[in-house]
Amino acid sequence: MVTPVIETRELTYIYPDGTQALRGINIKLTAGQKIAVLGSNGAGKSTLFLHLNGILRPHSGKVLFRGSEVRYHQRDLLDLRKNVGIVFQDPESQLFSASVLQDVSFGPANLGLTKNEALAATQEAMRQTGITGLEGRPTHFLSYGQKKRVSIAGVLAMEPAVIIFDEPTACLDPGMALKIMALLDEQSQQGKAIIMSTHDVDIAYDWADYVYLLKDGGVIGEGEPQHVFLRRDWLDRCDLTCPTVIETYLELTGSGLLPINKPIPRNKQELFQSIRSASPGSGPLLKTARHG
After folding, report:
1. Taking Cα atoms as reference points, which of 58, 54, 62 lies closest to residue 26?
2. Is the pLDDT of residue 270 over 60?
3. What residues pair up with 215 in beta bridges, in sequence order?
4. Residue 279 predicted with pLDDT over 70
5. Residue 290's pLDDT is what?
6. In angstroms, rounded to a whole number, what is the distance separating the alpha carbons of residues 65 and 79?
């Protein structure tokens, strides 16, 4: 049995004003896994993430890193934060140095690396995020998309085992959003566990290996995307819509234009392939629909 790189058990948290933000949350991530957490505003997504790298301490329950319970001593927290990086939704809350190079190099420079090792880690993170030419630029002069990539590079430079992304594509144009999601895929392929929150069901359905749905601080549904996004009752409770690919597929199968004995497509490319390989009896109908 594979030991999760990070796990929560019956995690509960109450804010000082009495708001119960988390109610017995159980999640786990393994190396290389891609997890999406969805829910309406106030569902508990950000509060959960702040527990995963020790910014918040649970009222009850526990967080485990590589099978060992986090004890919230300074040594434990330093190790946790070195290995569990978080990229906040608003890059302004994460950037604080005068230049891009200073900002990205801050993390590795404080990990006990030599100057050359820290510089190499910084340069590699900048290469991966496509900001190599911005080293000397003041961070406050960058575009929003550039700031987003710099904040991601600052986390990647520390080479964490887990990376948390809070709404990674929020406020980005479609082209930049695709680049960010490709970067997340690349990090997963390198063995990092990736967990992100998003309101975009289409991105979550296409990208994630596993999905958690949160409502009022609790998990109301979880599983593989093909299972979770077919549960209209779960989606309705979380104020979420069905992914476009699933809705289109269900409409085509319900109309007899596609056979129902095939796996549900995960993305547009798979859906288009299903249409192209549809049974001969459906072909003319599809051709007529395409050409009017």
Report:
1. 62
2. yes
3. 218
4. no
5. 47
6. 10
Give the whole-angstrom CA distance, residue 192 versus residue 156: 10
Rg from Cα positions in the chain: 21
The predicted model scores a pTM of: 0.90
- Distance, CA of 143 to chain centre: 22
- The secondary structure element, H or E, covering residue 60 is strand 60-65
Of the candidates 183, 181, 7, 196, which has an alpha carbon nearest to the alpha carbon of residue 85?
Answer: 196
Give the neighbor-by-neighbor strand order of the sheet with 60-65: 20-29, 6-14, 60-65, 68-69
**How much of the chain, in percent, has pLDDT values that exceed 70?**
95
**CA pair distance 290, 281, nearest whole angstrom:** 15
DSSP annotation of 4: P
Nearest to 39, CA basis, from 225, 267, 221: 221
Assigned CATH topology for domain 6-96+161-241: Rossmann fold (3.40.50)
The tens digit of pLDDT for each residue in 113-161 reads 888 999 999 999 999 999 998 989 999 899 998 999 999 999 999 999 9
Residue 166 near residue 49 (C-beta atoms within 8 A): yes
**Inter-axis angle of helices 100-109 and 115-129, nearest 10:** 130
Helices H / strands E in the chain, number of each: 12, 10
* CATH 3.40.50.300, the chain: domain bounds: 6-96+161-241
